[in-house]
Design a protein that fits this description.
Blueprint: E1 42-43, E2 48-50, E3 62-63, E4 72-77, H1 83-101, E5 105-110, H2 114-120, E6 128-131, H3 136-140, E7 165-169, E8 175-180, H4 190-204
Parallel strand pairs: 4-5, 5-6
Antiparallel strand pairs: 1-3, 2-6, 4-7, 7-8
């Protein structure tokens, strides 16, 4: 006798037509915005990838507050953003002279350590670069969460990295300009950043 349908009448519960999404109720990233304050953080000396105007002579580390005697541009970067990261870093290099002439400094926070960063970017850089270990600063800025990974929603990115972000931070740590791109669909404008620096300094004068 055939046993093909022997257990067909013994289903313990009906099979749902739509299975619940395992990520529907997860916590999402929430990037900090202009008008709020950038969270304080500490830079360990061992995490300095490239020391320039800000960190060239730093010993034993320093804090964000000590780096903001003048407006500071804080830019996040990852080479795992592929072409997006290459373009952003090139834009920052090309606009650094204008950023400095406008009265600000530039600090780049890399998701990769010194060895990995310098392999991809072997040429000297005019600005300071620091390793953001375990994306701790990115998490404070609301652009990184383990529960909302970039690789889960952006094709072509397979690493645990933050989303792109650039902030202008005043000596009081207030954010007066912000650029974030949660879906990697925007284009960063160095001109808009430089304009924001000049506007802020004109108001302060």
């Amino acid at each position: 006798m055939s046993t093909l349908y022997r257990y067909a009448d013994y289903l313990s519960s009906p099979i749902p037509e739509n299975f619940p999404s395992p990520v529907r109720n997860r916590e999402r990233i929430n990037p900090i915005k202009a008008g709020s304050f950038f969270p304080e953080f500490f830079i360990d000396e061992e995490h300095i990838i490239n020391g320039a105007a800000l960190l060239n002579n730093v010993k034993l580390g320093t804090s964000l507050h000590r780096l903001t005697s003048q407006p500071l541009v804080v830019a996040f970067y990852s080479y795992n953003w592929n072409g997006y990261g290459d373009i952003l870093l090139e834009q920052l290099k090309n606009s650094y002279a204008a950023i400095e002439a406008a009265g600000a400094r530039l600090l780049v926070l890399s998701s990769e350590g010194k060895k990995q960063f310098t392999v991809v970017n072997p040429d000297p850089l005019p600005f300071d670069v620091v390793y953001d270990a375990q994306n701790r600063i990115a998490k404070k800025a609301g652009i990184y969460l383990e529960s909302d990974p970039v690789w889960g929603r952006v094709s072509g990115i397979n690493e645990d990295v933050p989303v792109p972000a650039v902030y202008l931070v005043t000596p009081s740590l207030e954010i007066t300009y912000e650029f974030t791109d949660s879906w990697f669909q925007k284009e960063f404008s160095p001109e808009a950043l430089v304009g924001a620096i000049e506007k802020k300094l004109a108001i302060s004068a």
